[in-house]
Amino acid sequence: MSFPWAQQYKPTNPFMRWMDDRLPLPRLVYNSLGAGYPVPRNLNYFWNFGILAGLCLGLQIVTGIILAMHYAANAGVAFDSVEHIMRDVNWGWMLRYAHANGASAFFVVIYIHIFRGFFYGSYKAPREMVWLLGVTIFLLMMATAFMGYVLPWGQMSFWGAKVITGLFSAIPLVGEPLQQWLLGGFAPDNAALNRFFSLHYLLPFVIAGVVILHIWALHIPGSSNPTGVEVKTESDTVPFYPYFVAKDGWAVGAFAFLYCVMLFFFPNALGHPDNYIPANPMSTPAHIVPEWYFWPFYAILRAFTSDFFIVPAKLMGVLAMFSAILVWFFLPWLDRSPVRSGAYRPLYRKFFWALVVDAVILGYCGGAPAAEPYVMISQIAAIYYFAHFLIIIPIISAIERPDPLPFSITEAVLGKDENVPLSASPTAPFPGTQHANA
Amino acid sequence: MIRIISILVGAFFTLGLAWSFGNGAYQQITEPPPATAEHHFHLAPKEVHFASDGPFGKFDRQQLQRGFQVYKEVCSACHSLSHVAFRDLTQLGYSEPEVKAIAKGFQVPGVDPNTGEAAMRPGLPTDYFPKPFANDIAARAANNNAVPPDLSLMTKARHDGPAYVYSLLTGYQNQPAALLKEFPDAKTPPGLHYNPYFANLNLAMPPPLTSEGQVQYGDGTKPTVDQMSKDVSAFLVWTAEPKLEKRKQTGWPVLGFLLFATVLGFLSYKNIWAEKKGKKVH
Fold it and tell me: For residues B82 and B150, is the Cβ–Cβ distance under 8 A?
């Protein structure tokens, strides 16, 4: 795909011409990250987080592969092998802190990326596949991160694994055998640690594969943009190279700076001290909490404290926790507003910010002990969470009166667009609505 | 259709949550959870500073050596230090012959070269600090049914670790009268010791540092209980992360380079975009 005005790859070097006829790999790069990919000119900094997420994935794979050269996935020595990396492997401490904080950085970036999608309606037609693949990547990331956290075999590793695999036991009839089958035993032990290590090594490459599909699907309609108005003419776009290479370049630098502040000066700030205690099945930690990026979902899991009719509380919690992410898959069809961007949706915008606050509250409660008032607060917050996606979005998208859209991206950036037809004068009630889904 | 299903699913979860909330609120009103002594009398660690704190922090090697002495003469009777090898002590400023001599002073498990039977032998620099008890059962038997934890990672394994260790060592006291008045059942059981910095207020470890001069420092520092506690806490910061100093020292040039590269990147971004920028809208 591309817009008709996209620049064409014209190799001048004889070798590149030879190559282009046989394996057009340079052409692929040119058309996806080079001058051959026209991008809306009005993208703001929230559009930098896709490339940052890709960078994080690469960073995790590289540091992870090297760590795996020194780590031993055996319940007897796993904890000690991590300390061996921290003390005796050359620059091992840096690799491990880079990997542990890299996971946090990855989730920071991905949450901003997802909420960018919520605000600007990036999930809407014609980009549903981009969105569905993105949610799939997020689920794979959660699985990978969870299994990675088990590998150091500290107290939180062990008890986190016990709690999370214990969720499967809530499934009626098959729950308990399923849990034992997943763990390879009655409790997390060597069998579980080994398979978690194997899968933790495998899944990032599965993620990388889905990322390729995600980018492929994105490049069919091209990037969305802050106005939500589709690209119309050449003046709406700039070529990816040099414009977005330059913008992404300095964003990568700024991101790397903040990441290195964490890595070198606060490497344990986001971790739990209990994970520096070796796993001990006989001693339960006072508060079992997952890593910070799971806290909102953990709060939802723990918010269900009473059986609801025939559904036991635990099963309700498990259903709700998984549904909290699964609802994202349906978002393109729950939100039927023809206007894409939250910038032109006054009512939706308010609820969007309420969701941001709600997610922060859920996160805070998920990291707090399972006691009052946190449980009651997380119950209220979880009510809003489900109401937001399943009730509020379908309703407001039907009743909301959106603000007038600009005729084009060019008009939004420059204040005027020479291509504005007379019929779309700014006095018409919704000059842009009919274009939004074009 | 999908919206009707969605609203029904939404109603299922929100009603389930509202039901849980109602039950929880009712229980909170009818039977509020009882107050506990831990909740009222547990204290956050004291404020204390070490040379290794902060982005420019460096180990005070003199203090680490004093702390090591406290560990060797007091703590090592019950606590292992299993992630630290004698060879690591060169990082505290000991010379290699000194490390050899220190290692020799410890008996480590080995094999009799003639019979092949298990035997003890003097330590070598490549050996790790030996464990004071053969196993957890022996440790429990000797310590009022509590296993003294390994100290290698202690300052990373507790919130605010170094301050926690220091506060615990200096925090032993008699149970406050107010506590016994409010919570008569919370009297410290025999064999345990009251310490408000410990999570459940009573711990099995008797006060390890009790009198000034318990350890004789060679460098002329006055060995008060406070000083010894601080020194051994500083030593445990080192055992938990021997690479702490290197980490911070590496961080500065890395940040300097990234700042430089990012500024250059920003300037070229500005340059490249100069003629494409219009007025700012969203």
Answer: yes
